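pls read this protein:
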Amino acid sequence: MTAPGSRPTVKCLVWDLDDTLWDGVVLEGDDPRPFPHVPAALSTLDSRGILHAAVSRGDHDVATAHLDACGLADWFCAVRIGWGDKAAEVRHIAETLNIGLDTVAFIDNDPAERAQVNAELPMVRCYSAEFAGRLAARPEFSPVHVTAEAAGRRQLYRTEWRRRQAEEESGADRGEFLASLELVMEISPATENDLARASELTVRTNQLNSTGLIYTEDELRRLSASPDHEILLARLKDRFGDYGIVGLSVTELTPDESVLRLMLMSCRVASRGASGLMLAHLIRRARDGGRRPVTHFVPTAVNRNMLVTLRFAGYAPAGSDPGGTGPTVLEVPADHPVPEPGGHVRLLVRNA
């Protein structure tokens, strides 16, 4: 188990196009070809679950047509091409993908563009185009785990893009659209086959993470075999497809308390109400076992939203470590009502 504070690995590499991805400028009629190292870099990083996006200057239709003509368009989950501020566009990409800026990297041949992005978004890691073929060897582009879901992450985000388009075109309000998704969450104990993905979640998920702790696969295996601990995973799907494993809880069971040591939920489903539904299930599970629901919270630079989610679920401050260095302790008062499953997400619970 690793304490919070270490810098996360890159989740998305944002590419400039002209003279970075390909050798030349499209609008100057060069018909530029991708640099020789680019296809391998795109493929290698994609296989590790690292997304690709593009932010570049030029005409959107011309540039995207050239991406397609080069056979590269399918590698990209988001493309922002125009004449605006690149830092603003990089920020937009992060918001579109619902990931933290500290997990975004930017590569551009122009030192002035890199300096501008670095000045406005200091948490974004910037690289010169000459390093494109060597990024895969760098530790920040080398996730600890490369799971089956990681290798298919691009498709998950492409599916999410279709959901966003459907919402924009539906004309319905937010509640009606969520109901139309036919969301189903399945919560079940972690199995041996799940442990690599569960460990990966603790590394990748920062914004909706209650303590920022990182568990290795071996640590999760040991805890899952312990009668004093419980590891649950949440999966989500809707009419568009499967989100995969999106949530994880690590709970310590004492005679009187059910202590939530770690609760996290993928940022991809932050707007689906998934965190609240899983917390409500954990509270009901604790009470059904005759235990008081307790959780720990350790603030990080990016996880305030998780504290808000915990408070909405009914957790209230109960104290902190006597030395003042430990986590904040929250508990659900005995008289706090816990909503039953319902709403726009159907819950399935599997106990084995």
About this structure: Residues 153-170 form the longest helix (18 residues). The first strand starts at residue 12 and ends at 15. Residues 98 and 267 are 6 Å apart (CA to CA).
